[in-house]
User: Fold this.
Amino acid sequence: MQSVMEEKTNRIVELMISSVKPFQLMMGKIIGIALVGFLQLAIWGSMLAIILTVVSVCFGAPAVTDAAAGSAMMGQDVTGSAAAIAAASEGDGLVAALLNLPYLELGVLFVLYFIGGYLLYASFFAAVGASVNEQEDSSQFIMPVMLIMVFALYAAMGSAQNTDGPLAFWASLFPLTAPIVMMVRIPFGVPLWQELLSVGLLYATALGFVWLSAKIYRVGILMYGKKPTIKEMIKWVRYK
Assistant:
């Protein structure tokens, strides 16, 4: 949104529109910033792989547990040894849980939800940036979406306590909250049909948002000096 507004305010977009179609310009902006996001994901994925490798090498061996058990059997500091055994067992359980996560499923669905969620929200914010002239004018449009995103975060935290509850189920299917909530449910096991339905609804909604945003973008990008209303933006969608 900030990038589109900057080009519109500086009148750079008027030169660009003479060479490309508004839809091409909008999608170029969306795809370009998405590639930056993929670069960030690649860096995070590499860091995660390194951390998991170090954790498995350093804490995977039960040497601490064996030493503590031997000490307890010889009657030396039984209380301290029992505490050490419990702590080591808890650490081993945490490491085992981390190493046993369905990383392939998480990775594939993370990429799918990232692309679908990004297309959905980015197209909306691109349309808003093309419609307004000042940052202050965008608040009436982005506030409802920001509230939905905040709700998705709280729904995800609540879903971690009950991954099969009504809140977790419906929030993981609703396209605006699914990219966040479903990723919390996946490590606990989610039926395949729910995953497919969630991804299908997300991409169908994202494509619909891209189509609507393109309609608004092509008109709003050349509109200056007037604060748009929702009613006017609906008229822009109907223009041929």
